[in-house]
Specification:
Helices cover 39% and strands 11% of the residues. It has ten helices and six strands. Strand 2, helix 4 and strand 3 form a beta-alpha-beta unit.
Length: 276
C-alpha cells in the first residue's frame, strides 16, 4: 500500500511544546496516541559502503566508523532536506508534536535536518529502543564474509530464518520486536489526540509492521524478501479513537523525494530471510 502523503490531508496534527527530557517515555506523555509516522533514515555512508562491498564481492564492509556513529551521505542529507520540505507543507494545526529518533547518527541527523527544514519548533528526542539491530560478530561482514569466516553461523542463519536467528553478541529480529513492544505499550496506555514521528531503521520499520499488524512469521519474511524500505521513506499507522489496534494507512512512501528531484535509494539488506 503506497500513498503520496504530501498531497493528502493527514488530519488531526496538533502543536505541542518541547521539553528537555529525552526518550519516548517523556515524549509520548505529551503526545502520540492516534497517529504514528515511521521514517527510515536517509542514505548513510554505511549504506553506500555495504552496497559497494556486495557488488565488489568482498568479505568486509569498509565503514568509516562504528555502526552507531556512521553519518549520512551527501545524498542522505539531500533526502533529509527533501523530507523536511514535504513535512513543512503541513498546516500548523496538523503538525506532529513529538519527534523521537534512534540514537544512531544517521537517524538523528535525518530527524534534525528534517525538523529544521520543516521549520517545526520541536526538539528531537532520543530513544535507544529505536536503534538498528545489533549484528554481534557478523558486524561489517557481507554475506560472503559470513559464509567464508563463520560457515557454521551461515548454516544456522539459513536454518532458523531471519526472525529467530541471533548471531553471537547480537540480536535476532524477535529481540528487536521485544523492545518495540515496550515502545508501543506506552503509546497504547496514553490519551488521545496526538501524533508521534519516529525516525529509525529499515529492520525496525519492518518489525513495527510485524507487531502492529500481528503478522505471522511467514507474512513478515515474505514482506522482507520482496519489499525494501526506501531511505527517508514514510510509513503511517493510524487509530483515530486513540485506543485499540493500529491500521496501516500508507507504507514505504518516497514520492516526496522524486517530486523534488532527489535520488531515491533503498540499500536493501540480505533478502535471503526465510528458514530453509
Amino acid at each position: 500500500m503506497r500513498h503520496g502523503f504530501a498531497r493528502r490531508g493527514w488530519g488531526g496534527f496538533v502543536n505541542g511544546g518541547s521539553s528537555n527530557d529525552d526518550g519516548l517515555t517523556e515524549a509520548v506523555q505529551e503526545a502520540g496516541a492516534v497517529e504514528l509516522l515511521l521514517i527510515r533514515h536517509g542514505e548513510s555512508e554505511g549504506n553506500v559502503a555495504a552496497t559497494e562491498a556486495r557488488e565488489a564481492g568482498v568479505e568486509v564492509i569498509q565503514v568509516p566508523a562504528r555502526d552507531a556513529d556512521v553519518d549520512l551521505s551527501g545524498t542522505g542529507r539531500d533526502q533529509a532536506e527533501a523530507l523536511g520540505t514535504a513535512l513543512g507543507r503541513i498546516a500548523g494545526e496538523f503538525r506532529p508534536d513529538a519527534v523521537v529518533s534512534s540514537p544512531y547518527a544517521r537517524a538523528r541527523q535525518t530527524a534534525e535536518i528534517a525538523v529544521k527544514t520543516a521549520g517545526w519548533p520541536l526538539e528531537v528526542r532520543i530513544d535507544e529502543r529505536l536503534r538498528d539491530r545489533e549484528l554481534g560478530i557478523l558486524d561489517r561482514l557481507t554475506r560472503l564474509g559470513v559464509e567464508n569466516r563463520y560457515p557454521e553461523e551461515s548454516e544456522r542463519r539459513e536454518w532458523l530464518g531471519k526472525l529467530y536467528y541471533r548471531p553471537p553478541g547480537g540480536e535476532s529480529w524477535a529481540d528487536v520486536a521485544l523492545r518495540l513492544r515496550s515502545v508501543l505499550a506506552e503509546l497504547n496506555n496514553l490519551g488521545t489526540g496526538h501524533r508521534v514521528m519516529l525516525v529509525c531503521h529499515d529492520a525496525v520499520i519492518m518489525l513495527f509492521r510485524y507487531v502492529l499488524e500481528g503478522l505471522s512469521e511467514k507474512e513478515l519474511l515474505d514482506l522482507a524478501a520482496t519489499e525494501a524500505i526506501l531511505n527517508a521513506s514514510i510509513t503511517r499507522f493510524v487509530r483515530p479513537s486513540g485506543v485499540g489496534p493500529w491500521t496501516l494507512e500508507s507504507f514505504n512512501v518516497a514520492d516526496h523525494l522524486a517530486e523534488q528531484g532527489v535520488t531515491v535509494t533503498e540499500h536493501a539488506g540480505d533478502t535471503s530471510v526465510r528458514p530453509r
